[in-house]
Amino acid sequence: MTNPGELSGERASSGESATEGDGAPSKPELSQPAVGRLSLYYRELQRLLESEIGSVNSKSLGKMVNVSPAVVRRDLSSLGTIGRRGVGYDVQTLIDRIGAVLGSGVQWKVVLIGVGSLGDALLRYRGFERLGFQVTAAFDSDPKRIGETIAGVPILDVAELDQVLQQHRPELAIVAVPAEHAVGIAAKLVQGSVSGILNFAPTTLKLPPQVAVVNVDLASELQRLAFRVQMPK
Amino acid sequence: MTNPGELSGERASSGESATEGDGAPSKPELSQPAVGRLSLYYRELQRLLESEIGSVNSKSLGKMVNVSPAVVRRDLSSLGTIGRRGVGYDVQTLIDRIGAVLGSGVQWKVVLIGVGSLGDALLRYRGFERLGFQVTAAFDSDPKRIGETIAGVPILDVAELDQVLQQHRPELAIVAVPAEHAVGIAAKLVQGSVSGILNFAPTTLKLPPQVAVVNVDLASELQRLAFRVQMPK
User: Fold this and answer.
1) What count of other Cβ atoms lies within 10 Å of the Cβ of residue B221?
2) Where is the binding site for NAD(+), in residues of A?
3) Which end of chain B has fewer CB atoms < 10 Å from its terminal CB, N or C?
4) Confidence class of residue B231 from pLDDT cuts 50, 70 and 90?
5) Tell me, what's the ipTM?
6) Is A160 part of any domain?
């Protein structure tokens, strides 16, 4: 689906380039929908691996994410990964290849700013770590929250943000502050040479081209759903 | 941005069609990016109205959401709304037109299932109501949470879900349960004739074509961000 945030200054960054891993071809050109699908395959493949299933064919993988086997084969062949007739794809190889392309082969240091109820939920969310994202610190301005630890992540005073950015050089930041604080926080993050921002604040961040941003606007998602529901067939 | 969930059975529903409102042309065909942009304009226009700003031109509106004035004009002309040279667009008219198209002209009844930390955050999120979404009830299976009220919304026993769906006929549902419960909950929602599901569970829901779904996968969003950050220019 196309998030409205799409338009808000999203840019590829020329920042640190990740290690490519296991002989995959150099970073392929991928459309945003293709990246989305790879991310979905990745999730399902990890489940297969957990269930000790070692191989999968394009038909089964397609069923898991509701796309046709042909689309699966095209997506995977763009990674230089070819299934064998009657055997399918090796699950571990696919995970490694997709992970290398999506950047999950590397560990990313992430900071979170704004520990309101959403920030709190994001800190407790277990999906990030599994994909190689380590939230190293959270920041808030509320004295009642500063000093707390949520899911192993310490909540620091947002006044220390500049200093922590300088010392620890996190690559990514999650912004979950109220709209009126988002622009100021983003400016600090840019100055602290963060390369990418996942923005939950309902406001459009204007960032220099070397900083990537993905916006998640929860109300807009519900609005898009409503639009679909009432759209005549 | 393209959410990986895009592929997961999203369909236009032929469910209740909303009132069209104030003489806007019948529902235009809109691309998903255009819907996303309308949703962003809508947000910024509401801010302008709150600041008692009565008119806006395509250049200013474009700046607010980082698109060119030409794109703004094209999007708005598809709604049959034309700005006047030197004056611009009337803010209230735009809000009414966009609202009618996006379905914010109507009130939507919404239920939320799964009051973990994310569900809790969603209940406290103030962005929904402003757009015409009223969360009427939340459901959980945890006896410690049942009976609580969060942000005015009562938390009911999920065992009562079928009955509440039958009595109150909510159009939309927000699913924030763990992955392993999502499919079962979705089946109940479909049976209870919910028309659209906003799914936060990290799993792909397979739904009949008359039910629309928008998937929000937080880990995938972070993964997409990482992909952008490491992508060479």
Assistant:
1) 24
2) 114-119
3) C
4) low
5) 0.70
6) yes
